[in-house]
Amino acid sequence: MTPAPETSARGTATAPSPGLADAWAHPLLGRMLRGRSARRRLDQRHPWLLDTAVVLVVFLLSLPDLLAPGRHGPFGDAMDRSHVPTAVLIAFAVALAVPLWWRRRNPAVTYGVIAAVLLAQWSLGVWQQTGTAALVALYSLALHGSLAALSWAAAVTAAEMTLAVRLLAPIEHPFLGLFFLLGTATAAVAIGLTLRIRRLYLAALEDRAARLEVEHDQSVRLTTAAERARIAREMHDIVGHNLSVMVSLADGAATLATNRGETSSDALRILADTGRQAMSELRRVLGVLRADQHEEQLLGPQPGIHDLDALLARVRAAGLPVTYRTTGDLDTLGSGVQLTVYRIVQEALTNTLKHGGPDATADVTVAKDTAAVRVRVADTGAPEAGARSGGAGHGLVGIRQRAAMYGGTVSLGPPADGHGWLIDVMLDVPPGVHQP
Question: Which of 381, 370, 375 is nearest to 338 (CA)?
Answer without folding.
Answer: 375
